[in-house]
Design brief:
Distance between the termini: 19 Å
Strand content: over 45%
Shape: globular
Strand order of the largest sheet: 6-5-8-3-10
Length: 137
Amino acid sequence: MYCQTFESLHTDCVFSPQGYFHRNLGRTVHTLHFGRGRYIILHPQPGKKARIETFIVGHDIEKGEVLQWIVEGGKFKASFLLPDAGEANTSDGLLISETVVPGFEFTDHDFMTPQILTDWVSKEQADELSWLVKQDR
C-alpha cells in the first residue's frame, strides 16, 4: 500500500506491492509507520553510472532495518514489500510518509522512464530493475 496525503487533506492510496522509481527535486525525509520493505536509491555520479544503494526498512533495528532516512533531491528511489517479521510470505503492507523540503510540488516530481534507467545504470542492472519502472505513464 502506498499513500500520499496532499494539501487538500485528500489521501490517495494505491494498493501495489511496489513503489515505482520516482524522484523529487527537494530533499525528502522518509518515516516508516508500519510494514517491511526493500528500498532502492540510485545515486547519480557525473561521468559514471549511478551507484545503487539498497536497504531494508522495518522495525527490527537490531538487524539493521531502518525506521527513517533522507534522500537528497534528484535521486530516483523505489521500494517493494517484504514479508512481515516472523511471517512466512505475508505482508500487511508498507506505509511510509515522505516530507519534502522545502515543500512538495507536482512539477518537482517525476517517474523514471525506461530510457532514463538505461542511461543511469548498466544493461544488466537495468534488466534487473526494470520491473520497478512505471510503464503506464
